[in-house]
TrEMBL record:
KW Repeat (keyword) present: yes
Repeat is among the record's keywords: yes
Pfam families on file: WD40
Name this polypeptide is given: Uncharacterized protein
Species this protein is from: Morella rubra (Chinese bayberry)
Keywords: Repeat, WD repeat
Top-level taxon: Eukaryota
Segments annotated as WD repeats: 87-127
SUPFAM superfamilies: WD40 repeat-like (SSF50978)
Amino acid sequence: MTSVPGAPVTMKCHESMLYVATGSSVVAIDLRTMQKVIIPAVNRQKLYSFKIMPSKSLICTGGNGSAMLWDIRRNQETLKSEPIAELDGHTGPVMFLHMDQYKIVTGGPKDSYVNVWEADNGKRTNSLICCSPQEASTSSGCAGLAVNGYQIVTASCGEEYGLLRLRDFTNATDPVVKSEDEHASKF
């Protein structure tokens, strides 16, 4: 047995490691010895969500108003917990996270928008409304999020019904580009 500071928000196993998001940090525990190995991410605030992509050594944590992107290798080498990027621009807690090798999608129950970010550097590539434009002022925000490759489904709750919105970027032909020098994103 072992203990962690505070109640776990979520956990993820990868090979012999267990990553536990709890309180304001993510703790890595070696399942063979049940010993804490590293604390790869220490947030400045309470954690509401957590995802990890072990193949890229990346962790994403959702806090209040933003998410943080962390590189486990960098934090191990320097023994400092500094994020790669702050995924800023949300209202309220970021409770919904998706992370794959290309993108991170973030959202929360007090925010009518979900944001799409590049997984490698945390640059925002798009912002998608969850509710219908007529309900933007009365919607409770993002109530759920599901991602399958190039498809993003968002859920919101209005006063009378729930709205599911599917966006399929499979055949997207117009990349989002801010300037000629920046990398283009399909999202």
